[in-house]
């Protein structure tokens, strides 16, 4: 298993290089001049534009820009955004925000998704099951943006239960509302997958054998059915964590949380290839590590899956 | 300012169990009133990289400078006349060489004296191209600016020959060409001085600026946090009323709006999307600024047929029902002249072709030989409202004049690139707000040859000459006469088609009244506080 993990880690290096280059090239290919866009309403003096272009190597060809950026990145030199913010400082400030939001949302989503999914799958076609199917359908159908604005206006502005925006109150107060909204929106998919997977395993031959042997239903559920049913669920959670981190742009915007999502959005708008690649690289590593953990968990849950 | 958080605390316990993996952080609330002191919380736009109006002259940065610096000159909010603040006098005989005397007694918050040398050093530092300071262009009128900003390569000089320190409190500014509105340009906060201590290594003071304004930072500002300011005891004039002033940054204006409704913010601009509903959402708390310092106008591609003919441009303007158009822009009113109302020298109805007259429009278009081909109407596709507005314009031309119209939507970043290269081959919507209160600032940048936002590359030597003549007259009243003549020429030629002015609508908490003057505009820093 150790060798398997090591092999997976080594493969990450070439993938990382390819992905960073592709992302850098894609940002490079976006139309528009970032330094012009900097000026906003007021035009910048041509000499200042020239000075800024030279400072950021914007007139170099794509490949040499990329090498220059990677060289700096490997030396731990993250540099400045086009408008002069320190990228390292911004990352240090923003990662905790996004992580707190993402993990809180994931925790809420996992707990509710598993609870409802397991119950509904075990007591299939019962009242809870039907209610769950209806509720998840509704949740999946409503656009997230609407729910977020609605929740902010009702629970924060009118009822005053939560802060409206910002992270000034720290965790958990500032993150509860956005994370709950994200968690509720995400729980539908998880609950459905858990339910289907559980229902499928519950009909398998070995479950019937267990029943015939006289095992208690509780023991069958927790020891035998669940262990087998959780494989696709864990894959889903792993993918979802990465999705939550990468897709926090809208939530962070509405709740004014200074996280990675907002930084990414702004940087793409400003054509800041370096920042986008730095953020993508971190997301990529996170994604790969989560995937690796998921793969290793397979082996623990199901002895038939072995990593040699 | 206090909000109930019972539910939040109740759910907290649950969340702790749920998310044992999430780490905790956060350092209490930074906003809010304390101990009977008067506190005002202002919502502003995107976070800025540095509190330094010379390095970053974005609107948010300038707003913070309102609090932490003071201008050389300013407009009297009641009369609209020029008055001196940091400057004691700004005088010239020929409108080209200006002597600026400072008042004694101004000091930076670090104790250093505010001297003529501090101004000269700051201006030179800003104008030196390799520093990449965004307010660089502000100094382009000063003699020797070109040496610091060569067309290519590194500049050989670091100081402008047009700046000279006479004594501790006096310096002389020599301009390239005579420019009579110069004293009014000095009310712009991009012209303030940085402390000598800061100029040694400005970047390390990005988050702890040293100014000489009515407020100073309570403690060094941390990125991602609100900017909290307290009164500066060294400020020599009567200061504003609030003891503590906080600026909170919002990347989404609707979030700021919601924070206001929840009572956590005392002042915010109404976002465009709420222009119709804010009076219902916050009854009695909304107001419209007395100042309309901006205008939205159409820019025809004046150098290509058929727009080359002023008759066509007049016809296109006459066919527009501006009353109907302003209904699409909540709070706006039709423009009837080429400059902003409330400016010295502003006259109503200088634009003869800015009122709906379809018969005359048809007649003019017939005289010009009709409109062959399709009219391209460009709009900014980032802004959903602009497509609707562009279609409204197009429909008017189509229905009244029978012109075929095609709509071209592009993101703002692409449009601005096309404008700056002068490559727009259709009509586009331009917007301008003056930097200093002179009608000259509505002529030179928009329709003067090589004007900063003259994207259509309009060039008319007669117009340029009138502006230059006005610039050379040191007497403001005489200069205005010349600028007005230039405006009259513009009205004949119609190189830009005025549409509407839209004063900002804002929300303010009961007992907090921002300064709102038709001349000086909106300023939350100088709010009156009675609560």
Automatic annotation (TrEMBL), chain A:
Keywords: Cell membrane, Membrane, Transmembrane, Transmembrane helix, Transport. InterPro entries: BPD_transp_1_N (IPR045621), MetI-like (IPR000515), MetI-like_sf (IPR035906). PROSITE patterns: ABC_TM1. Signal peptide: none annotated. The chain crosses the membrane at residues 9-30, 99-120, 132-155, 175-193, 229-255, 275-301. It comes from the Bacteria. It is found in: Cell membrane. Residues 95-294 form the ABC transmembrane type-1 domain. SUPFAM superfamilies: MetI-like. Pfam families: BPD_transp_1 (PF00528), BPD_transp_1_N (PF19300). It is a multi-pass membrane protein. Belongs to the binding-protein-dependent transport system permease family. This is ABC transporter permease. It comes from Streptomyces endophyticus. The lineage of its organism: Bacteria, Bacillati, Actinomycetota, Actinomycetes, Kitasatosporales.
TrEMBL record, chain B:
SUPFAM superfamilies: Periplasmic binding protein-like II. Pfam families: SBP_bac_5. Residues 1-22 form the signal peptide. It comes from the Bacteria. InterPro entries: Peptide/Ni-bd (IPR030678), SBP_5 (IPR039424), SBP_5_dom (IPR000914). Residues 83-450 form the Solute-binding protein family domain. Keywords: Signal. This is ABC transporter substrate-binding protein.
């Amino acid at each position: 298993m150790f060798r398997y993990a090591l092999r997976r880690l080594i493969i990450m290096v070439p993938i990382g290089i390819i992905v960073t280059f592709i992302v850098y090239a894609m940002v490079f290919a976006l139309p528009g001049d970032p330094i012009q866009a900097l000026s906003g309403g007021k035009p910048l003096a041509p000499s200042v534009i020239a000075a800024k272009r030279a400072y950021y190597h914007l007139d170099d060809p794509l490949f040499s820009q990329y090498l220059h950026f990677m060289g700096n990145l490997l030396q731990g030199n993250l540099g400045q955004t086009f408008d002069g913010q320190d990228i390292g400082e911004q990352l240090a400030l923003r990662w905790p925000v996004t992580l707190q939001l993402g993990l809180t949302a994931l925790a809420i989503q996992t707990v509710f998704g598993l609870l409802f999914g397991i119950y509904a799958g075990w007591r299939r076609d019962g009242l809870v099951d039907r209610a769950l199917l209806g509720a998840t359908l509704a949740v999946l159908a409503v656009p997230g943006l609407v729910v977020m604005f609605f929740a902010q206006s009702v629970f924060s502005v009118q009822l005053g239960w939560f802060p409206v925006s910002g992270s000034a109150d720290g965790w958990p107060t500032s993150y509860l509302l956005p994370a709950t909204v994200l968690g509720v929106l995400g729980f539908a998919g998880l609950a459905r997958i858990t339910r289907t997977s559980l229902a499928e395993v519950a009909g398998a031959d070995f479950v019937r054998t267990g029943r015939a042997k006289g095992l208690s239903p509780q023991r069958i559920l927790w020891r035998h059915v669940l262990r087998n049913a959780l494989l696709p669920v864990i894959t889903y959670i792993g993918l979802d964590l990465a999705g939550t981190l990468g897709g926090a742009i809208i939530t962070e915007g509405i709740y004014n949380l200074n996280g990675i999502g907002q930084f990414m959005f702004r940087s793409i708008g400003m054509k800041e290839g370096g920042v986008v690649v730095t953020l993508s690289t971190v997301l990529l590593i996170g994604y790969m590590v989560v995937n690796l953990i998921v793969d290793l968990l397979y082996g623990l849950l199901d002895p038939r899956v072995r990593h040699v | 300012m206090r909000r109930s958080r019972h539910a939040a605390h109740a759910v907290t316990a649950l969340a702790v169990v749920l998310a044992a993996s999430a780490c905790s952080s956060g350092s209490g609330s930074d906003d809010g009133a304390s101990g009977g002191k008067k506190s005002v919380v202002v919502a502003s736009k995107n976070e800025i990289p540095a509190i330094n109006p010379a390095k970053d002259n974005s609107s948010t940065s300038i707003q913070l400078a309102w609090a932490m610096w003071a201008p050389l000159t300013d407009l009297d909010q009641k009369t609209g006349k020029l008055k001196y603040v940091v400057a004691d006098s700004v005088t010239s005989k020929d409108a080209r060489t200006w002597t600026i005397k400072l008042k004694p007694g101004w000091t930076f918050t670090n104790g250093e004296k505010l001297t003529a040398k501090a101004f000269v050093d700051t201006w030179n530092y800003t104008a030196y191209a390799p520093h990449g300071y965004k307010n660089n262009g502000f100094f382009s009128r000063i003699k020797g600016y070109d040496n610091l900003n060569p067309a290519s390569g590194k500049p050989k000089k670091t100081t402008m020959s047009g700046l000279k320190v006479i004594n501790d409190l006096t310096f002389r500014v020599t301009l390239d060409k005579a420019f009579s509105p110069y004293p009014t340009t000095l009310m712009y906060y991009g012209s303030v001085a940085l402390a000598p201590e800061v100029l040694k290594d400005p970047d390390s003071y990005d988050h702890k600026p040293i100014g000489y304004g009515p407020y100073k930072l309570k403690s060094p500002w941390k990125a991602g946090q609100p900017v909290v300011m307290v009164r500066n005891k060294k400020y020599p004039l009567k200061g504003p009323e609030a003891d503590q002033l906080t600026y909170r940054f919002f990347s989404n204006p609707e979030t700021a709006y919601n924070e206001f409704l929840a009572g956590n913010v005392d002042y915010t601009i109404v976002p465009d999307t709420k222009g119709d509903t804010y009076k219902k959402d916050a009854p009695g708390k909304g107001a419209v600024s007395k100042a309309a310092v901006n205008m939205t106008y159409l820019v025809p591609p004046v150098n290509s047929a058929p727009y080359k003919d002023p008759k066509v441009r007049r016809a296109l303007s006459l066919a527009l029902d501006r009353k109907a158009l302003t209904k699409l822009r909540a709070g706006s009113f039709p423009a009837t002249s080429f400059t902003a109302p409330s400016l010295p020298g502003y006259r109503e109805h200088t634009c003869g072709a800015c009122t709906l007259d379809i018969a005359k429009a048809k007649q003019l278009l017939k005289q010009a030989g009709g409109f062959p081909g399709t009219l391209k109407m460009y709009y900014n596709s980032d802004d959903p409202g602009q497509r609707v507005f562009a279609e409204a314009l197009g429909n008017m031309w189509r229905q009244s004049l029978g012109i075929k119209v095609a709509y071209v939507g592009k993101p703002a970043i692409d449009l601005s690139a096309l404008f700056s290269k002068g490559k727009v081959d259709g009509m586009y919507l331009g917007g301008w707000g003056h930097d200093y209160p002179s009608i000259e600032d509505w002529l030179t940048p928009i329709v003067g040859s090589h004007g900063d936002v003259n994207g259509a590359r309009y060039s008319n030597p007669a117009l340029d000459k009138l502006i230059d003549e006005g610039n050379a007259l040191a007497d403001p009243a005489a200069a205005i006469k010349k600028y007005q003549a230039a405006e009259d020429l513009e009205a004949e030629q119609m190189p830009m088609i005025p549409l509407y002015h839209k004063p900002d609508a804002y929300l303010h908490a009961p007992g907090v009244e921002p300064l709102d003057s038709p001349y000086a505009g909106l300023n939350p820093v100088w709010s009156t506080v009675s609560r």
